[in-house]
Amino acid sequence: MNPQHPSSAQAPDWAIEAQGLRCALNQRVVLDGLDLRIGVGQFVGVFGANGAGKTTLLRTLLGLQPLQSGRLRLLGRDGVALRTQVGYVSQRDPVGADSFLRARSYVATAWQGERWGLGLGQSAQRAQAVAAALRAMDAADLADRSLDALSGGQRQRVRIAQALVNPVRMLLLDEPLSNLDPQAQQRILHTARRLCTEHGITVLMTAHDINPLLPHMDQVLYLAGGKGRLGTVDAVVNGPALTALYGLPMAVARDAGYVFIHPAGGFMPEESAHCGHDHAHAPGGDGA
Ligand SMILES: Nc1ncnc2c1ncn2[C@@H]1O[C@H](COP(=O)(O)OP(=O)(O)O)[C@@H](O)[C@H]1O
Ligand SMILES: [Mg+2]
N or C end of the chain: which has fewer CB within 10 A? Predict the structure, then answer.
């Protein structure tokens, strides 16, 4: 949500340009030599096994985790972007302590300042920013509900609205679809798509299952072994590309519009146990 778009003359072509990103957590290298180029207004799904580094990548883009080496340009600037330009919804839902708040107040807690130009008082500016963010997430009707009275999908839409209350140009959503039913997932995906198309916001969304995102994404990013592969679904989600990334023979089956990613030759028994309910989830992580 950004009613004050920069003119196209100022706008960068790339939301994210990364070369040779290397990130370590407690001396364990998680990302190693990751190259990315993501255009402004793209919707990118980020996938990979548990522990592949999806959360680490988002936190690195936000500047919450240091870069060991490599070059990063965000929204046309070196280093991390201004925090007010990047909205973030973390994988873990920290709402718990705030659950007594009404959605409107919860969204307002993230507001950082002026958005609508001069002439309105601070509280009026904030109220307008909150209303616009809730509207963008189809959550205007939830404004006066307390958080603990919301369903999982409603709560997730309010969390994303909070991330939109400042004039962000990029939105990083870490597993926002987890534990939601398909209808609630699709509602979030539609709103995310609209933010890209209508507001030019670049969205990175991590997810376990690629299938719900297929109709909405522009590109996919698969992470494995510290490396990544970015491109269209057709370019990345195929046996040869995933075999090169995972360093294991991988196969992709398609059926009725769904994709199933699995080791070529079938799952080993222990892998079946790990992936049994999620065929789009390829091996390669540490099961963390
Ligand atoms: N605070 C931390 N300290 C050390 N290692 C961590 C920490 N957080 C995550 N890791 C490890 O870093 C790797 C990447 O984790 P993460 O980015 O959370 O992966 P994903 O989001 O893809 O599941 C995993 O091996 C995980 O165990
Ligand atoms: Mg994660």
Answer: C
